[in-house]
Amino acid sequence: MELSIIKITGKDTGKKVTLNDSIFKIEPKEHAIYLDVKQYMANKRQGTHKSKERSEIAGSTRKIKRQKGTGTARAGSIKSPIFRGGGRAFGPQPRDYSFKLNKKVKQLARKSALTLKAIDNNIKVLEDFSFEAPKTKEFVDLRNNLEVADKKVLLVLSEQNKNIYLSSRNLKDVKVVTVSDLATYDIVNASVILFVENSIEPLHKLFRI
Asked: Are 10 and 148 in contact, with CB atoms under 8 Å apart?
């Protein structure tokens, strides 16, 4: 598929770039997207939740009442989960939520997500640019010029650019990533994806095309 290359002022440069159909025009597999996003979110979890069980509660171990003759159920410890202040039964314990996902599944997920964005015409290619200094206003102007100010924007660079990153850092609906860090979650979460022209070739290399 071919897309026009746009200047950061919003005007057409008159140039076009070819996006490989094996990335942007495949049959999307939504289950692969689901698995990759699920793994991404699971890997983000700290898993440090913890509640005390009855063996970890500080309290007396004496038998709190006699075994028989009270008319109520027998009770042997004030630390029992049925009493206020007692331990919690089957409470959360620290654990690792991460799990393995095959590389081919992750690659298929990213291709599927990019294809869905391409189908909805939510992919734009920008002419190579940089900022002389970190200025949020310049990035705000860029969004206004491209008419994406009210949308979640994902900007994909070929390599890290400190000035562009710092210029976008204070904008809550903008995320800047490099091609190597492009994740399925970021693609799905964005409303519009902006590829810088020089990021297309590294993207093709990433998928070994």
From this structure: no
